[in-house]
Structure formats: structure tokens, C-alpha cells
Specification:
The complex is a heterotrimer of chains A (about 350), B (about 280) and C (about 450). A two-stranded antiparallel sheet of chain A has the order 1-2. In chain A, helix 5 packs antiparallel against helix 6 and helix 7 runs parallel beside helix 13. With about 350 residues, chain A is mainly alpha-helical. Chain A has 15 helices and 2 strands. Chain C has 2 domains: about 210 residues, Periplasmic binding protein-like II (D-Maltodextrin-Binding Protein, domain 2), CATH 3.40.190.10; about 210 residues, Periplasmic binding protein-like II (D-Maltodextrin-Binding Protein, domain 2), CATH 3.40.190.10. Classes of the chains: A mainly alpha (about 350), B mainly alpha (about 280), C alpha/beta (about 450). At the A-B interface, helix 1, helix 2, helix 5, helix 6 and helix 7 of A face helix 1, helix 4, helix 5, helix 6 and helix 7 of B.
Chain lengths: ~350, ~280, ~450
């Protein structure tokens, strides 16, 4: 999976590449060789430019405008109105924004941490299991990984259902004294898990961790397989404990893998939408909005306020870019230096 | 305790943990499928009924005939399939071209392009919802699957290129050079030498795009207002509320939506990991 | 949502008197009725197709009425009419998408409290000429309060209605419960139902969903409260008034006293109706348009004398202020077939089809004679009684944002029910927010 060919030929030499290999035939089309990569890039660039970069610029512009239905409809369109920073002062004044921001951040931290911890633990476990058992477990976690986000939300909504949900049934199974000791109550019948913001997020975290730990586990397993067995052998001879071995050998060697997994998890968890949408049943309980949901509700619930929606989306993007900037810089550096 | 006994005990503990993980991962999926085949009496109960002893196809039948929001589930499955396949077809061609350019050529602006790809991946799709919605309106593609395909191509392309370029780069250059020396044209070389070797990577990338498009909810939610154009993720929302929550039907439909993804996952399991990781880790 | 105000002065008799007066004056204009004009000019729209949005569930009665109406129009004009049903909870999303994408219908049904909002978004076409002449001129002018903005009328009232308490008459009989005359009796009845019919039954269902304010409003108005009043050109919130608070606490107490389960804080009338059809609700506030749906959802088991209505009782007896309003029919602003659309509205809201719409759909007709006749029917008495005490939500385009999108009062109630705030704190915050929303330009 390393791509040495790219690296050895990579940047540092900005001259058009075709020149480097004299005698390479320029064929058929009659186009100069140097133009070929650009031609190949045209469709991709067009798509990325038109569907990602330019829209992002539009978001940044709209965040300072008032954009409602009269400004976007195809017939008899009105020009958008500049409102300066009104959209921002309006959302910052609203408590929905602050609870959405808090929900987004707390959820991301908890979900990412838990996913990584559970995933790594399972990855290490898989590496230790026998062949048959590990295949069984891999197939099992594959199922959890494959379930579409909407279906994930549906499944866990059903498991946590107040009346016929299996979670309340299982909690009722606990001996009363234990349940009372731990939770301060014995009867769980009809417990509405999807009502309060905090319990919605608890269910959401379980859902997201359940669905995303398999990827971490399998990636960690792949990484572990690449570590020479001698290293562990040596550690064992030295009498190192399992934890020490993990800390001194496994973790440092897998550091790049963890870096990637962390960033991917952050990107995925920061803007979780589908599962939350299903668990809440649309943007209903405003205390449980995250930034994605808040932006959606502002922009698409009547009357549509695309400007404030864009302002919230911009805040979300900036946070995400700042959080992932470190990673991007590192990748860019590698790209430039090698 | 003898070392042997300890070792054995440790092994049992390991396997038990493995089994626990297996159950944690699989049970919710199993519960979805089993609910889909239970009668309503067995669904709406406070008891735990592990197997659908009153096995029934009534829910499956109902979602296929009566469906939800006025159409059979087949209509929505079809829409989802069209969107996902359309995304894959367009995306595969575009990403293969771009990946070849990036992995096989050294040209001015290459690093810039790679940075753009990276940054594009970091932009949350939700942030693009509003402008893309307006774009689709401008193009007159509201309520058309083509609009949804367009959006999905945009959302999956950067990652597709990023992932595929490692597969292209992994094909030894010497093979192509040998072909050139034999006088083959670039196109022939590409088609005869590079393409077959990259094909497995292309399959993995395509499946990734397929799944992304298949699962996409938020754009479909705002772009499709006619029920005949809903994709599965949107259609599933309509089981809630409208006529009360019909869990049997919901689970039957969710199961149908999940099956294609599971099949694809099992096919390309190993490559998905390699691809996702390789897509993101450089060097 | 579906039903909004008909001005407070709309007492049955007043409406009747006004209507008769209007009736006398309206016959004069030369404009012939829609039916006559259409038949005179023959199939003038042959080959054209109209899209017509109806709101709600396509229950058999509503479906039959619509089919007949469409058939009559098609026969008279030669146009084709495509009907699409939009469930109430999705109406706003659907309207938004249509207005944004230019994909709207030609004609749509619309809740009359929604008219100011969609007029402000320029989604409706002015149709003042329709209400100025023909049958429609008989519709009392005070019923056009929400529909007329800056002198132009944007929708024709189609049917009015008010809400009363729908209850399980068979359970009341079994359990020997008398029809509650005071709020305390209602609470006692609800508790008794829960005792005998199971803990998962809601004695009186709490509505915290998109149309929660129909229930909250009734309670708050009865206690003498108001949401907001317009002083000059500014809305001033009245949620912190003691009277509103009394009603609000009555509302939240439905859950905190256990009459309705805490697990369904977000349910709207549609969801309550489904639970009612499945024997999980003893009483809830609604109107007779829910009956066909209940019949269908219960597979024919719940109908006839198993259920009945009584007027929502006030705290110390007497009838509560019910929320009152109606459904309108309007021409979409970007209708492709504007003329045909107007003719369709003319036909549908004319006396023949307008009265039929109301009577078939369990609403009150907007034509005074028909209304007077209906008021004699004892089954309609609760509604007629409620009709006399109509109250309104603030008539402002931004009301929908407070009512549904931001769910200001629903959120306040949730805070109180979950113990995160006292009623005073929650209402204080809600009041500020309501003022901000209503006063934005």
C-alpha cells in the first residue's frame, strides 16, 4: 500500500514530466505529452470545482446575506440582500446554537475516543484469536459495519423503544436490588430513552460506536499483521507485560495508522446526521440538535432561512478544518518533501 | 496453576471475549431481521422472543405491495440503485482518469491538486447542502434522479481519486514501459496493461462510492419532493408517524436496504480496508 | 396547523346574519356561477392538465369527494386533474420545496393560518376576483381575515372547524364515567381509564408535536391568556401573564400528573390518532375529520357509538375556548394553467362543492345557510358551541416559525416537564423568543 513510485517521482521537480524520459513516444492524438495529465484531470477538476469548491465559496457569501424563497426560486428571482454579520449575531444570540455546538463537540470527543478504544481492543483481540474464531468475529463485525446509517438509527431506536424495546426488557431482568443500587430504580418499563437530549446522545454514541468500531478493528489488525513477530518474541523473553508491549512496540509502530483512523473518525463523527435524524424523528427536539441538524432546520424548515443555515454550516466547516488542519499539513508536507 | 492450565484458561477467556464481541456486533442486525419476520403480536410485546416462532412474510409482502408514501418499496430500491449505479459509473471514469494523471505523471500543479483533493474531503457534505440545492434548482434537476447522481458524484469523487491513485501507483511502471518499447500506443497500454491490474482497486473504489450514494440521506431529503423519486433512506422516514410506527414494515424495508451493502462488504472486505487506509496514509 | 382562526366575533348567529346580508347583495352582479360559465363555453381546457394538492390522509370519504369534484371539473372543462395527497406533517416541507424549485401544483388546499406565511413567500396567486362574485360573495367577509392581505385575497375559505374532546364512549360506559363538566372531572376520568385499561394508555393525550398549540392554546385562552398582541406595529408577548401560565401549567400537568406518558412528548395529532385507533388513548383534543382515519386504522372496529365528542371543559366548569379555524383552497403562484386553476377553485369553493367539502370532511361549512342547518344537529353541537368562542393565534407570517420550526412553546413545556426549568423561567425565555420571531421583518 505504500506508493513508492509516486514518491520517487514526486514534487521537487516542477518541470513538465514528459521531458524526463526522452524517447517516450507521443502517440495517436498528436497532443504534446505534457498536456496529457491535464487532459486527464479536466473532468475531475470540473466536478470538484463546480460541486465542492465553488459551493463552499457560495456558503461563505450566503452567510452574510438574507436568502429566502423569493431569492432562490427559478421564476421571478430577487437578488439576495446583504445583511453584514446579522446572521451570525442572530445565531450566536440563540441558545439553540450553543447547545448544538456543545452537542457536536461532546459527541465527537466521546464517540471518537470510544470508537478508537473499542476498535483497537478488538483489533488486538483478533490478532490473538485462532484462525477460525477470528474469521467468525470478523464476519460478525462486518455486518455491523455494513448496515447503512439510516438502518443503524432505526435498529437502535427499536432496541431502545420505550414500550417494546429489548433494552428496557433487559434492564428489568436485573435483580431489583442491583438495579436500584446502580441506577436508583428497579422498574424500567416505558423508560423513554429518546426524549431527553442527553439520553438521545447516549443512544447515538452507542449506535455510532457499534457501527464504526469494526473499521478500526480491521485496520488495526492489518497493521498488527505487519509488525514482525520477532519484536514480540523479544519482548516476551524480556518478560514485558502485555500493556508494556502494547505501549512500547505496538503503539509506536502503528502510530501512523492511528493518526489516520483518528482523523477519519473525527470527520465522520463531527457531522453525524442520518442516525440522529432517525433517532429524533427529524429536527423535533431542538435541545438535541447538533450543528448539521441546526443548519438543516434553519435552511429547510419553513420559512427557509438559507442565510442563517449557511452561517451555521460555515461555523461547522471552520471547526472541522481547524481540527483536521494538523493532519492535512502533515500529509501535504510528505507530499512536498519526498 | 501450571503454565499449561494458565495458557488454556487464557485461551478460553480470549475466545469468550471474541464471542462477546461477535454477539454485540451481530445481535442488532439479527434483531432487525427477526423483527421483520415476526407477527405484530410478537413485535409489540414486553417479552423477549428470540426467534420469530410465528414466522410470517406479511411485513415483507406489505412493503412490497402497499409500500409507504404511495409506492412499493421496489420503487425506492430502484431509485436508490439508479442513483448509486449512476454515481459509480460516472465516478469510476472520472476518478480513473484523474488517478492515472496523479499517479503516473509529474506535472506542474500536481501538489496543488492533491491538496485540493484533501481539503475537499474535509469539507462536510452538510455544509454544501444549501449551495448544491440551489445549483440543482438552477439546473432544473429538482425531483430528478440525475440531480442526485450529480451531487453524489461530487461528494464521492475526491476520495475516489485519492483511494484509486494508490492502486494505480502500485502497478509497476516497468510493465507499461515494456509495452511502450513494443510500440503499443498510450491508449493501448492503458487499456491492456494498466487497466486489468488496476481493476480490483477500481472495484473497491466503486463499491465505496456505491455504498456512500446508497446510504445518502440529507441531499435526497431536500432534493426529492415527489414520493415517486424517494430513495430508500428517505422512504424509510415515512414509516414513522404517518400511520403510527409500523416496526414490522420498517424492519422488513431496512433489511432489504441492508442486504446489498452486506453482500458488497463481504466481497471486497479486505480491499476496503486497504483502500480506505491507503487512501489516507501516504508513504 | 390545519385549522386557524376565524375571527373571534364569528358567532354562529352572527355569521348567519352577515351571510344572509351578503347573500342579498351578491346575487346582483352579472357574473354567472362557475358551473354555468364553464358549461357555456364548452370544454375550454381540453388537453390541459392541472395538479391539485389535497392535504391530509386520503381516507375513503375524502377520496370520494375529491374524485367526484375532479370528475365534475373534468367533465365541464375537459381538463385533466392530477390529485396528490400530502400528509399534514409534511405540508410545510413540501410547500417549501415546491416554492423553491418552482415545482408547485396549480391548486392547493391550505390551512388558513398558513396563508399569511405563504403569501409573504409569494407562493400564492391573488384571487380577489373569485371572492368578489358568484357564490363566493356569500362567504361572510369576516371569514376572510387571514386570507386578505393589503387588500388582495389569496385563498378562499373551504371549510371551518373547531376542536373538541374525542373520547371512547364505550370505555366511559363500561367504567361508568360521566362526561366531564370541569377540568378536574376530566382529570379524574383520565386517571380512572388508566387504572382500568392499563398503564400504557394515555387517559388524555398530551400533544407536543407540530400542532401542540391547538391544545395549549385552548387551555391558555380559556384561562384568559393570550400568546401575543400587536401594539402599534410590534408584537408584544403575553406568555408571562399569570393567565397564560395557568393554562400552560394545566398543559404540562397532563404529563407530570401522568395522564399522558413522558415517552411521547413529541407526538402530534396524527400520532395520537393512531394510538387512539389502537386502544391506547382514552381522550384527546381533535375534530371529526379524524373519524375516517380512526375507522381505517382500527380496521373498522372503532366507529359509531364507540366514540363521541364533548366540549373541552374549562377549569371551573363551562366550555373552554376552543381553537377555531379552517381550510382554504388557493391558486399556487406559479401555476402553469392559471385560468384553469382559478376556474377549479371557483367550482370547488362554490356553494355546491364547498358545502359538500365541509359536510363530507367533518368540517363546518363557510356558507351561512348550510352552517345554520348544521348547528341544529345535536352531534355537531359541541363544535357549534366551540365555534361561538373562537380564538386565534397571532396572525403573522412568522407565526409558523414559532409554532412549528422553532417549536417555542413545545420546547418550554419540555423544559418544565423534564424539570430543567420552572414554568416562569421557561415562559420568560419563550416570551422573548416569540417576540423576536414575530417581530423579524
Amino acid at each position: 500500500m505504500t506508493d513508492t513510485s509516486t514518491r520517487t517521482r514526486g514534487g521537487g521537480n516542477p518541470s513538465p514530466s514528459g521531458r524526463r524520459r526522452p524517447g517516450r513516444p507521443a502517440k495517436a492524438s498528436g497532443l504534446p505529452v505534457w498536456s496529457i495529465p491535464y487532459l486527464l484531470l479536466i473532468p475531475g477538476l470540473l466536478v470538484i470545482g463546480a460541486l465542492l469548491l465553488y459551493p463552499m465559496v457560495q456558503v461563505a457569501i450566503m452567510a452574510f446575506q438574507k436568502v429566502g424563497l423569493p431569492q432562490i426560486r427559478p421564476v421571478n428571482k430577487r437578488p439576495p440582500e446583504w445583511v453584514g454579520t446579522d446572521n451570525f449575531s442572530q445565531i450566536f444570540d440563540n441558545e439553540i446554537f450553543w447547545s448544538a455546538l456543545r452537542n457536536t463537540l461532546v459527541f465527537a470527543v466521546l464517540a471518537v475516543t470510544l470508537t478508537l478504544v473499542v476498535g483497537t481492543a478488538v483489533g488486538v483481540l483478533l490478532n490473538k484469536l485462532g484462525k477460525k474464531m477470528s474469521t467468525l468475529v470478523i464476519v460478525g463485525i462486518m455486518f455491523a459495519w455494513a448496515v447503512p446509517p439510516v438502518a443503524q438509527g432505526i435498529i437502535w431506536k427499536w432496541l431502545f423503544d420505550a414500550e417494546a424495546g429489548i433494552i428496557n426488557w433487559a434492564l428489568n431482568l436485573l435483580p431489583d436490588w442491583l438495579s436500584t443500587l446502580v441506577f436508583g430504580r428497579a422498574d424500567w418499563t416505558g423508560e423513554p430513552w429518546l426524549n431527553d437530549a442527553w439520553s438521545i446522545y447516549m443512544v447515538l454514541i452507542i449506535t455510532v460506536v457499534w457501527a464504526s468500531f469494526p473499521f478500526i478493528a480491521v485496520s488495526v489488525l492489518a497493521g498488527l499483521k505487519g509488525i514482525p513477530a520477532e519484536l514480540y518474541e523479544a519482548a516476551r523473553v524480556d518478560g514485558a507485560s502485555a500493556w508494556r508491549t502494547f505501549r512500547k512496540i505496538t503503539f509506536p509502530l502503528l502510530r501512523p495508522v492511528f493518526a489516520v483512523l483518528t482523523v477519519l473518525s473525527i470527520i465522520w463523527d463531527f457531522k453525524v446526521f442520518s442516525q440522529l435524524y432517525v433517532l429524533m424523528g427529524g429536527p423535533t427536539n431542538r435541545e438535541a440538535f447538533n450543528l448539521s441538524m441546526y443548519s438543516y432546520a434553519e435552511a429547510f424548515r419553513s420559512p427557509p432561512k438559507m442565510g442563517s443555515g449557511a452561517a451555521i454550516a460555515l461555523v461547522l466547516t471552520v471547526i472541522l478544518l481547524v481540527v483536521t488542519a494538523v493532519y492535512v499539513r502533515q500529509l501535504v508536507k510528505q507530499e512536498d518533501m519526498t | 496453576m501450571s503454565p499449561l492450565a494458565r495458557k488454556r484458561l487464557g485461551k478460553i477467556a480470549l475466545n469468550a471475549t471474541g464471542l462477546l464481541v461477535f454477539v454485540f456486533a451481530i445481535f442488532p442486525v439479527y434483531w432487525m431481521v427477526s423483527t421483520a419476520f415476526k407477527t405484530n403480536d410478537q413485535i409489540f410485546t414486553t417479552e423477549f422472543i428470540p426467534f420469530p416462532t410465528s414466522f410470517t412474510f406479511e411485513h415483507v409482502h406489505r412493503v412490497l405491495t402497499e409500500g409507504v408514501a404511495g409506492n412499493s418499496i421496489w420503487v425506492y430500491m430502484g431509485n436508490s440503485a439508479i442513483v448509486a449505479l449512476g454515481t459509480v459509473l460516472v465516478g469510476a471514469v472520472f476518478s480513473l482518469l484523474a488517478a492515472t494523471a496523479v499517479a503516473r505523471f509529474n506535472f506542474k500543479g500536481r501538489s496543488t491538486f492533491l491538496i485540493v483533493l484533501l481539503v475537499a474531503q474535509m469539507i462536510p457534505a452538510e455544509a454544501l447542502l444549501i449551495p448544491l440545492y440551489l445549483r440543482v434548482i438552477d439546473l432544473g434537476l429538482v425531483d430528478q434522479l440525475a440531480g442526485l447522481i450529480l451531487v453524489n458524484v461530487g461528494l464521492t469523487l475526491p476520495f475516489g481519486i485519492w483511494m484509486l491513485r494508490t492502486f494505480v501507483a502500485a502497478v509497476p511502471k516497468s510493465l507499461e514501459e515494456a509495452a511502450w518499447i513494443d510500440g503499443a500506443s498510450r491508449l493501448t497500454t492503458f487499456w491492456r496493461v494498466l487497466f486489468p491490474l488496476v481493476a480490483p482497486g477500481l472495484v473497491a473504489t466503486s463499491i465505496f462510492s456505491f455504498i456512500t450514494a446508497w446510504n445518502e440521506l440529507i441531499f435526497a431529503l431536500v432534493l426529492m419532493s415527489e414520493s415517486s423519486g424517494y430513495t430508500m433512506p428517505v422512504a424509510l422516514q415515512f414509516f414513522f408517524g404517518q400511520k403510527g410506527t409500523d416496526w414490522g414494515a420498517i424492519m422488513a424495508s431496512s433489511t432489504m436496504m441492508t442486504i446489498p451493502v452486506v453482500v458488497f462488504f463481504l466481497i471486497v472486505q479486505r480491499r476496503m480496508v486497504t483502500g480506505l487506509m491507503a487512501g489516507a496514509v501516504k508513504g | 396547523m390545519r385549522i386557524a382562526k376565524i375571527t373571534a366575533t364569528t358567532v354562529t348567529t352572527a355569521a348567519l346574519a352577515l351571510g344572509l346580508a351578503a347573500c342579498g347583495g351578491a346575487e346582483a352582479p352579472a357574473e354567472p356561477s362557475a358551473a354555468a360559465s364553464a358549461s357555456a363555453s364548452g370544454p375550454k381546457y381540453s388537453g390541459k392538465e392541472l395538479t391539485f394538492w389535497r392535504l391530509g390522509d386520503s381516507n375513503p370519504a375524502a377520496q370520494k369527494y375529491t374524485d367526484e369534484l375532479v370528475a365534475a371539473f373534468e367533465q365541464q372543462t375537459g381538463a385533466k386533474v392530477k390529485v396528490e395527497w400530502i400528509p399534514w406533517p409534511q405540508v410545510n416541507d413540501k410547500f417549501t420545496a415546491a416554492a423553491a424549485g418552482g415545482t408547485g401544483p396549480d391548486v392547493t388546499e391550505i390551512g388558513n393560518d398558513q396563508v399569511p406565511l405563504w403569501q409573504s413567500q409569494e407562493a400564492l396567486a391573488p384571487i380577489s376576483d373569485i371572492v368578489a362574485a358568484g357564490d363566493q360573495a356569500q362567504i361572510p367577509k369576516n371569514l376572510l381575515g387571514l386570507e386578505t392581505i393589503d387588500g388582495e385575497t389569496y385563498a378562499v375559505p373551504w371549510g371551518g372547524g373547531s376542536r373538541a374532546v374525542l373520547y371512547r364512549a364505550d370505555w366511559f360506559k363500561d367504567l361508568k364515567i360521566e362526561i366531564p363538566k370541569t377540568w378536574d372531572e376530566l382529570v379524574a376520568a383520565a386517571k380512572k381509564i388508566q387504572e382500568k385499561k392499563g398503564k400504557d394508555v394515555d387517559g388524555f393525550a398530551f400533544n407536543g408535536g407540530s400542532d401542540a398549540n391547538h391544545l395549549l392554546g385552548s387551555l391558555a385562552w380559556t384561562a384568559g391568556g393570550e400568546y401575543a398582541v400587536k401594539e402599534g406595529d410590534k408584537w408584544v408577548g403575553k406568555l408571562t401573564d399569570p393567565a397564560f401560565k395557568t393554562g400552560f401549567e394545566q398543559y404540562t400537568a397532563l404529563v407530570t400528573d401522568g395522564l399522558s406518558s413522558k415517552s411521547r412528548l413529541g407526538q402530534n395529532t396524527t400520532e395520537i390518532r393512531t394510538r387512539f385507533a389502537n386502544n391506547k388513548v382514552g381522550m384527546y383534543l381533535t375534530a371529526s375529520w379524524d373519524l375516517p382515519g380512526i375507522d381505517e386504522d382500527s380496521k373498522g372496529k372503532l366507529k359509531g357509538d364507540k366514540l363521541a365528542f364533548f366540549p373541552l371543559p374549562a377549569k371551573d366548569g363551562g366550555e373552554a375556548q376552543s381553537f377555531l379555524g379552517g381550510n382554504d383552497i388557493a391558486v399556487w403562484g406559479t401555476a402553469k394553467e392559471m385560468d384553469a386553476a382559478k376556474d377549479f377553485v371557483k367550482l370547488a369553493s362554490g356553494k355546491e362543492w364547498g358545502v359538500k367539502y365541509a359536510t363530507d370532511g367533518g368540517l363546518l361549512p363557510v356558507y351561512p345557510e348550510a352552517l345554520a342547518k348544521l348547528a341544529e344537529d345535536p352531534a355537531q353541537a359541541p363544535f357549534a358551541a366551540a365555534f361561538a368562542k373562537a380564538k386565534a393565534f397571532p396572525a403573522d407570517p412568522n407565526w409558523t416559525e414559532a409554532n412549528e420550526t422553532k417549536a417555542v412553546l413545545q420546547n418550554a413545556a419540555r423544559q418544565v416537564i423534564e424539570g430543567k426549568a420552572t414554568a416562569d423561567e421557561a415562559l420568560g425565555k419563550a416570551n422573548t423568543e416569540l417576540e423576536n420571531i414575530l417581530n423579524q421583518s
